[in-house]
Design brief:
mainly alpha; Serine Threonine Protein Phosphatase 5, Tetratricopeptide repeat; 16 helices; 0% strand
């Protein structure tokens, strides 16, 4: 599970909702009036925090190339370019763009934000914390994406337990933050808090239905909870996304056979897996003799098939009840 957490954890989630969402209105409680934040800064930052949809650099294609931006470009172009550079882990270019944003758009929080990410990428954690704090001061209130990045910093410095508080704050500020919901789901899953893990997996999938790590993790929990019908749904969705993963078909066949009482569907699923593996379209660990398992299922199906065939023979009379003579 720890490997899955490490692989799935994003380097950047730039969830740019409307200004209200970024400064706390998404919780339904209104903006936080923390005394350490300046209301004047909040007003000055508003133009830089509105009219942008939620955008996730970890799971979406960049809107702009990682490159220098024209001097007269819109401030959003700097944000998209810097985000693309974070995805490429080009920390030198992230630093350059962050410095340009800081000098050209002095009331914007994004310059400090990207400078914080550049510092984090280079392992300069103390500077990263300082720049991320500055980004929130410029925004005049807490930002979900800053809390997410602070959680990632704390995870590297002290471990997931220390990071959890900041990550919970991030998804409270922005419940649509896919990466934050996924991170929490995987940490709860690792710690065997299955109900909480399931809740956050489902929240992540509410925002991004084709998120394979969430589909895989949620289906694993549903199998463990013996919820066969839902497990079939989410395993099937995962299979559509990544048909090359053999383990998904193995789990789906297991659910059909042991939870749903449908050995015919289990047999069909394993036959499809065998064909996919023979043609090189599916790889991974099966964990048993696939041919023997298919043979065993075929043998178990024969009595049923024979009985069904007899019942459909022309002229065959249905069995008479012994009651009533």
């Amino acid at each position: 599970m720890m490997n899955r957490i490490a692989l799935a954890a994003p380097q950047l989630v730039l969830s740019l909702a409307v200004a209200c969402g970024l400064v706390g209105c998404a919780t339904g409680e209104g903006p936080r009036r923390d005394k350490s934040f300046d209301a004047g800064a909040r007003e000055r930052a508003k133009p830089f925090l509105k009219d942008l949809v939620s955008y996730d650099f970890r799971f979406s294609s960049p809107k702009r190339a990682c490159a220098a931006v024209e001097a007269d470009a819109d401030w959003k172009d700097y944000v998209w370019a810097a985000g693309a550079c974070v995805q490429k882990q080009d920390w030198n270019q992230v630093e350059k763009l962050g410095l340009e944003m800081s000098s050209r758009h002095v009331d914007s929080p994004w310059g400090a934000y990207f400078l914080g990410l550049a510092a984090s990428g280079r392992g300069e954690y103390l500077r990263s914390h300082w720049m991320l704090d500055l980004a929130e001061k410029k925004a005049g209130g807490p930002l979900a994406l800053v809390r997410f990045e602070k959680a990632r910093l704390l995870e590297r410095e002290e471990g997931p337990a220390s990071a959890a508080k900041e990550m919970k704050e991030a998804v409270k500020l922005d419940p649509m933050m896919v990466a934050g919901q996924l991170w929490l789901a995987q940490v709860y899953h690792r710690d065997r808090m299955l109900n909480e893990a399931e809740r956050h997996y489902r929240l992540a999938l509410d925002s991004k239905g084709d998120l394979y790590p969430a589909l895989s993790g949620l289906s694993e929990i549903l199998v463990e909870k013996k919820n066969g019908s839902d497990a079939v749904i989410f395993l099937s969705r995962a299979l559509l996304l990544k048909p090359e993963v053999s383990e998904t078909r193995v789990k789906l066949a297991h659910v059909y056979e042991t939870m749903m009482g449908e050995p015919g569907k289990a047999l069909q699923t394993l036959r499809e897996l065998r064909v996919a593996m023979e043609k090189g379209r599916s790889k991974g660990r099966v964990g048993f003799d696939l041919n023997q398992k298919i043979l065993d299922l075929e043998k178990s199906m024969k009595p049923v098939q024979k009985e069904q065939a007899q019942e459909t023979q022309p002229g065959r009379q249905p069995a008479q009840s012994k009651k009533g003579g």
